[in-house]
What does this fold into?
Amino acid sequence: MPRNAESTAFRSALEVIRGVEPRVADAIGAELADQRESLKLIASENYASPATLLAMGNWFSDKYAEGTIGRRFYAGCQNVDTVEALAAEHARELFGASHAYVQPHSGIDANLVAFWAILADRVEAPALQRAQARHVNDLTEADWFALRRELGDQRMLGMSLDAGGHLTHGFRPNISGKMFDQRSYGTDPATGLVDYDRVAEAAREFRPLVLVAGYSAYPRKINFRIMREIADSVGATFMVDMAHFAGLVAGKVFTGDFDPVPHAHIVTSTTHKSLRGPRGGLVLCGPELADQVDRGCPMVLGGPLPHVMAAKAVALAEARRPDFAGYARQIVDNAQALAEGLLRRGATLVTGGTDNHLVLIDVTGYGLTGRQAEQALLDSGIVTNRNAVPQDPNGAWYTSGIRIGTPALTTRGLGTAEMDTTAELIHTVLSQTSAGAGPDGAASKAKYVLDPALADKVSRQASELLTGFPLYPDVELG
Ligand code: DSN
It folds into this structure.
């Protein structure tokens, strides 16, 4: 491929867009510039390859393909079949799964597909069976009411939000919290780690239909073999949401007891976090759940996005290359170097470190809330997000934590030495920010005081750190 092929492709695309709505072309260019200049430490973000990005901008976007391969509700899906089959094949091979469903538009959608598949498999429910025999648009109010009555007392046991679990694991703001009667397992207050004996005890007491493992802010590995034993001991279906760490599974950093695929009945994921693909989701399972999973659209999903499935096929093919394992290992090495750099400078980390791609700083040690810390870091060119810590005194809005992750900076090529510099920048900002007061002089959980000159200085240092690691080096927009 000529070195300038990527520049030509993106420049031409922007030129065409500019001819219709120049402000959109400008915003796309500005987004690249912003991403190039900031130290992106959001644990759930990454930089997809140019091939992945380009696979999304084409005619597949125009095609409807409800149903799945061999069972479509629309004609003329032969090319969609090709990319869906390729994406599924790459997913199966990459993760060693017998079945892959690559249509979910997001992780939330992937989980919804999995929940419905489990309910359909496990629950004797005439209304559910009637519903599945029809298109979702044809269900009446009475059908939904009957469904709710049949399914409403099914139970789910998942990790609590403040311990790092995800909203879709049975919490009220998400539909999963309305579909299931949910109970949570937390982490040991002393260590911050999952206590498997406590999970087993909760499972024995609660007898869940579904035991969920997976997280978006837990900085450690989970032993899926033990979790499966717990699920089996109470007859639960064991589901793992590996959205955050799928790249570490793909890159064989998480193997044996820490690889969810051989242990779980069903595994869900996003494709855009550590896996470095397009925004989207997928579901992996064995033959016993495959048919129900494949009913995801139209049961709970809108029409599949064939252009995104094309991009999933490209990204999953990339993740099957030998160099992806080196990338995955470096993500963890970088997270550990970042954790060590922060600890050495006096930061408090939930669980005292990390085994995966993320670090959770308890910023109460700096006298700040998560919201104050997030904004102060943003002012200084460091993009992170606030997150609750276990038993968070500041709740889910203000929080007491800052979650930082290394997948994106690792894609740019930063290594452990740069992680130490990053730790220094983060610590400098947090230690020199103080909590502010509201207009009435009362302590505020949102306002903060940070010398703008210091914020500028750190922003410049962050930019300098990145100059040796250009983002999309072969893309020059001119
Ligand atoms: N929003 C994702 C994250 O940041 O972890 C999870 O849904």
Remarks:
- The two ends are 20 Å apart (CA to CA).
- Residues 106 and 280 are 4 Å apart (CA to CA).
